[in-house]
Amino acid sequence: MTDVDFCVVGGGFAGLTTALRLKQAGRSVAVLEARDRVGGRTFTELREDGSWIDRGGAWIGPGQDRIYALMNEFGVPSYRQYTDGEAMMVVDGKQYRYTGTIPWTMSPWAAMNLGAIFLELGHMCKSIPLEAPWTAKNADKWDQITLAHWLDRNILSKPAHELLETAIAGCYTSAASEVSLLFVLYQMASGGGPSFVLGVKDAAEDARPVGGMGALYRPMAAEIGDSIHLSQPVRHIHQDADGVTVRSDELTVRARRVIVAVPLAIASQILYEPMLPIDRSLLHQRMPSGAIFKIAAVYDEPFWRRDGLSGQSAAPGSPATVTIDACTDTGRPGVMCVITEGPIARQIGQLDEAERRAAILGALVERFGEKAGAPVDYIEQNWSAERYSGGGMLSHAPTGVLTQFGHALREPCGRVHWAGTESSAVMCGWVDGAIRSGERAASEVLELETVTALEGRLHRL
């Protein structure tokens, strides 16, 4: 039995931030992490040549003030994403090179459709109250339809439709028919709108930490120290009038409160006694993750830069759906990141490893030339098969979920509190959102304990 002030379930950025802030406030903590590593849905692999590969979340952008503050706290610098050169769209086998966010080199009709939809989405996002999107004026209407339904009704150009469906639904690693329009608008609004979510420069993929995300989560874990217990998946949380008992297969932790900081689908695998309130229990069942492969093709140098390309590309339906330059701050070696999400990720997941590699590299050759077919290394991360992630990088809400159960996202359930990027009203879905949720959860439990202590003193008086 380990006796501490607070127990944290999960060692991703949400859990690490919670534990760090509690420890800095002078409280004792125990962090129980199911994996044999910290980092959660971020995972930085250090390579022998001194470079690194971010196999999970990697990018940061303006407005993500909390991750920048944490980086400053631990002395982790950032560097800008490479955006020199042209990006590429591939639709119906035809390549379109462009700069900026919208590929104006496509047909004027398609480009106008894309521009109009961006404006409309931005306008709709401005009507979403971030703390309670289910109270938006059109919440009921928007929560009754999927993203696919809205795109079908509002985009007339087939190429524009394919590109937007790929770009937007990809954020949720699922088909557009699986995601509520209200949830899409809320998640976009939490980051400042569609231009931020779908952009690169001065947007969601504007920069990266030098050394990858591991350059931040490793010193955080070091400061928390031996309070972190790895390979300890939590099986049971029991709360009573005096505290909580948290059990893994090998450890039992007794604490005043517990903060659960794992994906919603994983939180549902824990047995809670007494049972959680019905809305929270049903929320766990109704916010799944999706399928995603993140692949790094490593080359001696980023040859695409010499060819006048930024490395950014998108091709709906391709096994290499999206690519982006993922080189370190030195620019060597060349790292091309391939991200494949949703239904296509599920399809290529059925191939064996050699078939999948051939399909991915074949798609890169079509876009970037023969050099793309001969990487010096090929690193594949299938987050869909990660037992303790439950799938993609963000749990999503199908139709009807936010208006019925959204209020339960952050509400404590007695002595059980919640963190995780999905619970953040700002930057929901990014590492910054996870950090914000951890800081909120830490402040929440500290404030409650202060109130409880004061009430105890008044009672004794």
In words, what does this structure look like?
With 461 residues, the chain is an alpha/beta fold. Among the domains are: 2-77 and 210-276 and 413-460, FAD/NAD(P)-binding domain, CATH 3.50.50.60; 92-101 and 199-208 and 290-388, Alpha-Beta Complex (Polyamine Oxidase, Chain A, domain 2), CATH 3.90.660.10. The chain is 36% helix and 20% strand. It has helices spanning 13-24, 65-73, 108-125, 139-143, 147-154, 158-170, 181-190, 194-198, 214-224, 264-267, 278-286, 303-306, 342-348, 353-368, 401-405, 431-460, and strands spanning 2-3, 6-9, 29-32, 44-46, 52-54, 78-80, 86-91, 94-98, 207-209, 228-229, 234-239, 244-248, 252-255, 257-260, 271-273, 292-299, 309-314, 322-325, 334-341, 377-382, 416-418. The strands form 5 sheets. It has a 7-stranded mixed beta sheet with strand order 8-7-17-18-19-16-20. Strands 1-13-12-11-15 form a 5-stranded mixed beta sheet, with no helix packed on it. It has a 5-stranded parallel beta sheet with strand order 10-3-2-14-21, covered by helices on one side. β17 and β18 (322-325) form a beta hairpin. The model has no long low-confidence stretch (mean pLDDT 95).
Question: Which properties best describe this structure?
Answer:
alpha/beta, 16 helices, 36% helix, 21 strands, 5-stranded mixed sheet, 461 residues, Polyamine Oxidase, Chain A, domain 2, FAD/NAD(P)-binding domain
